[in-house]
Amino acid sequence: MKLSSPVHQLKRQAKLTARESGMPLHAALDQLAQQEGYSSWSHLSVSGSRSGRAQKCLRQLDGGDLVLIAARPGQGKTLFGLELAIQASRAGGESYFFTLEYTPADVLKRVSQLGYNPAEMRDAFHLDCSDEICASYIINELRDAPHKTLVVIDYLQLLDQKRQNPELSSQLNVLKEFARKTGIIIALISQVQRDFDLASKSLPDLSDIRLPNPVDLTVFTKSCFLHSGEIAFEMAN
């Protein structure tokens, strides 16, 4: 949901309200957040930050990109992918969220966590939780999708979980070629190896991606890594 003012300006308004009314600052912040449609200030500030990061990321994506979004569990990669799809649809484009991990109810719950009302989601946001999701299934569903449609796939390591599906590397090459030909943007959410938790670096990179089968990760044109509230957006070499 769109804020009436940037987060820092809203915080300034709350401080002024607290000073003039004598109410505690936390109460003034929560009151203002509720006026903006959020349950609390913490909900507003987190959602506002994530929304801003998603919008910044979207501005760096081009038609035909194959994008990797990677993080350890609990770092918000699914919420970030959802935010990307929602922001793309709110900006007037089409977006799809394909997931082999969650049910429709699970996804809609996360949409609510982002501060959006699932009942008011625009028709331009498409959710697909089919058990048949793989590269060929996705391409078939996108046959009428316009140029620069944003597609988020949750998640990379599940695409070849069924034996009848092609190996992961083959599916990625097919998706990349489809994106190149159509100008559609495809982003895949990915797991990061557990070993990263013991690493000294602050953010994971391509060497930390969990791969049950060999995959040439240079297939991705861009990548986005998240950890502890930090985010790094990288172009392909």
From TrEMBL:
Pfam families in the cross-refs: DnaB_C (PF03796)
InterPro entries the record matches: DNA_helicase_DnaB-like_C, P-loop_NTPase
SF4 helicase domain mapped to chain residues: 61-111, 145-210
Protein origin, superkingdom: Bacteria
Annotated SUPFAM superfamilies: P-loop containing nucleoside triphosphate hydrolases
UniProt cross-references to PANTHER family, sorted A to Z: REPLICATIVE DNA HELICASE, REPLICATIVE DNA HELICASE DNAB
Protein's recorded name: AAA domain-containing protein
Source taxonomy: Bacteria, Pseudomonadati, Pseudomonadota, Alphaproteobacteria, Hyphomicrobiales
